[in-house]
Write a structure and sequence with these properties.
Elements (H helix, E strand, L loop, with lengths): L1 H33 L5 E5 L6 H17 L3 E5 L6 H9 L6 E6 H10 L11 E11 L1 E5 L7 H9 L4 E5 L5 H13 L3 E5 L3 H9 L5 E4 L1 H9 L3 E6 L14 H5 L6 E9 L4 H16 L3 H7 L9 H22 L5
Parallel strand pairs: 1-2, 1-3, 6-7, 6-8
Antiparallel strand pairs: 3-10, 4-10, 5-8, 5-9
Length: 331
């Protein structure tokens, strides 16, 4: 009889423990099933009107329709994109704060900054490769430089040439350094606080050339204010198919593209990550979002989750070599 009572008490204790464990699991499962039950923030680590900002708003609108909740774009510019990126990396990993990362925030900055406040590979979970865009090598539409051969000849002369960028360590700066290495001659880098100012000085002839996104330069190319000498990608840009690549003109490797990746904090629950990946993929392929991205010169290249992680690692390594070659460093 005593043994029967002991077994009954043990059974009751196990039932109680099981119920307690279940009470711990259920809220998490319910949270994942309810996601999202409030607006989601998409942090853009650059200012309003930048290419990253425009792309984030297009993608955010498409994803909001899929999620059934608003996606609010929040601009958190500063320190080459590190301010906004750090905010998301250290924020709550609940799916309510995402980051529109770039080649700068998640590849270049890893080497450019001596003490980066976040780890681009460990602190984030990639959700979707939104797309990539080559940069255009542009000169003044009214200036004497009309071909890449002209630029090379001018750089070989005593006075050399100057090239503008949106700042030290940006993709435009590093593309200019790679061009200098490929063509030789004297090329002086002139960093600006932002790309629009740099582009204005190229149009005005105060700087000889720069690399910049198609969305920004195409209107000026069409108006004759800028002339494109080449595209920085291995293949011609879909936004400007008549512009030859630099690689095909110099007969050497030259393949640098800017890219945009949507991220969540690393510890975001797997069900939420899966939901966001599905929603992002659906939005990017939609008849509304895809043409708007194409109009910005963004070419899509969807990747599986494992491939996104591998892509991120490879990009950190590729741009590290260029950062070291340029000598650029930010404390």
């Amino acid at each position: 009889m005593n043994e029967s009572r002991r077994l009954l008490r043990r059974r009751d204790a196990m039932i109680t423990l099981g119920a307690a464990a279940g009470s711990l699991v259920l809220p998490a499962a319910a949270h994942a099933q309810a996601y999202p039950d409030k607006p989601v923030r998409m942090v853009v680590p650059f200012g309003p009107g930048t290419t990253t900002d425009i792309i984030a708003r297009v993608v955010g609108e498409g994803m909001a329709r899929e999620l059934g909740q608003s996606i609010v774009v929040e601009n958190r510019a500063g320190a080459g994109g590190t301010v906004g990126s750090q905010q998301v990396a250290r924020g709550a990993a609940d799916g309510y704060q995402l980051l529109m990362g770039t080649v700068g925030t998640h590849a270049i900055n890893a080497t450019l900054f001596r003490n980066l406040a976040y780890d681009p590979l460990k602190d984030f979970t990639p959700l979707a490769l939104v797309g990539y865009t080559p940069t255009m090598l542009v000169v003044s539409g009214q200036g004497p430089i009309k071909t890449l051969a002209d630029l090379k000849a001018r750089a070989a002369q005593g006075q050399g040439v100057s090239f503008a960028s949106a700042g030290n360590g940006t993709s435009g700066h590093l593309a200019g350094e790679l061009l200098k290495a490929r063509l030789g001659g004297q090329m002086l880098h002139v960093p600006y606080k932002e790309g629009g100012m740099a582009m204005n000085d190229v149009m005005g002839g105060r700087a000889d050339f720069m690399f910049y996104h198609p969305a920004a330069v195409l209107p000026h190319m069409q108006a004759g204010r800028l002339r494109a000498l080449g595209a920085s990608s291995a293949q011609r840009s879909a936004a400007a198919k008549d512009v030859p690549t630099i690689a095909e003109q110099i007969g050497a490797d030259f393949d640098l593209v800017a890219w945009f990746m949507l991220y969540a904090p690393a510890a975001t629950p797997a069900p939420v990550v899966a939901r966001l990946r599905q929603v992002a993929a659906s939005a990017l392929a939609s008849a509304d979002v895809a043409p708007k991205l194409a109009a910005q010169g963004v070419e899509q290249r969807p990747l599986a989750p494992d491939a996104m992680a591998a892509f991120g690692r490879a990009e950190v390594d590729k741009w590290a070599a260029l950062v070291r070659q340029s000598g650029a460093q930010v404390d």
